[in-house]
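Aim 2 progress update. The chain analyzed this quarter is reproduced below.
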Amino acid sequence: MLRGLRTASSVQRESDDGPNPEGGPHEHCRNREDIPGDQTEVSGTRDVGKCPGVRQDEAQGNEEDAGKHESPNDQPMRGKQVGSVFARIQQWQQEFRLDVQERIKWEPVVGRPIMLLVKLGGSVVTEKAHLRTPRTAAIHRLARELASVRQPLLIVHGAGSYGHILASRHRLNEGGLGPARRAAAARVQADVRELDALVVGALNRTGLSAVPIPPSAVLSLDDGRVSTMDLTPFLEFASMEFTPVTFGDVVRDVRRGFSVCSGDLMMLELARAFRPDRAVFAADVDGLFTADPKRRRTARLLDVVGPKDLSSIEFSSPSRTDVTGSIEGKVHRMFEIADHVGECLIVNGNVKNRVRDALRGRRVVGTRVVRGP
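Predicted structure tokens:
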């Protein structure tokens, strides 16, 4: 499925079987005793204590031999070597991560995997007005549609009634470290993982090999804006043909203590990293209208929307329980996403096969979001 992509495992095999040029990873790892005990792992990408291409009995023998033949005068020299050896290992680790990332993002179009990004809206996978109420039939139908696309996918889903109701009640988007808010944040984290388990379970029953990646484990915010994000789990699982699944979550915030990370924010970060061919938002309406179609019958569906069209749209106020912002704010986020993908679409996730056909590039009822003027 991922044609033309050298996976993390293939990089490992090349390190094991290929030549060992001077300064290569084998030399870096040859004497493990040179690495301080608290520095045997870098960024969670690879355990540098396990040297590629070097059997552990060889490494152990090297340690023993070094201990036998080393004189007291050698000790200062060995101490000076520790920093340089570890620096070289860090450089090799970084090169490995960049190699995986760049090959996912920048392989030529011929033979390059077609990566697709999709968000299943919270109002599609849950009954948004009823606390912790999944729309089980819709989840299973959408899982089958995604599996039938038969292309590498990155999947994001909203928190819906598993996140927004309690998050709004306790104002979790404002942060704070009081006991009541801490308890509410922990409960919302547990709830959104319960929803994610339902989504991942449905996907796995279709054979997609879905793996959950919680935002709170890889991302932190600074006053609501992304501070750090570790893309390694997404990159490496995708390279091994798993289907990463993430969602709206409560995450660390260096100023507020914690805050809410929306599914739309995860869509933006993944779009920046993977440059997918297509990003599809599955909503509970056909697309973006000139007004709220649930309140105004005369609302007209927009086939294409760009920044210049915003003045002609009558945006409704954000829902009382929606802690991730207004519809207008979400559209601005989609403009940012459109800058990093081949095509960005809003379609109705409640219409059978609409999401599937949009991901396949077929013409469907919906709104195409463009970045241009």
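Confidence is low (pLDDT under 50) at residues 1-70, 103-112. Residues 74-106 form the longest helix (33 residues). These observations will guide the mutagenesis experiments scheduled for the next reporting period.
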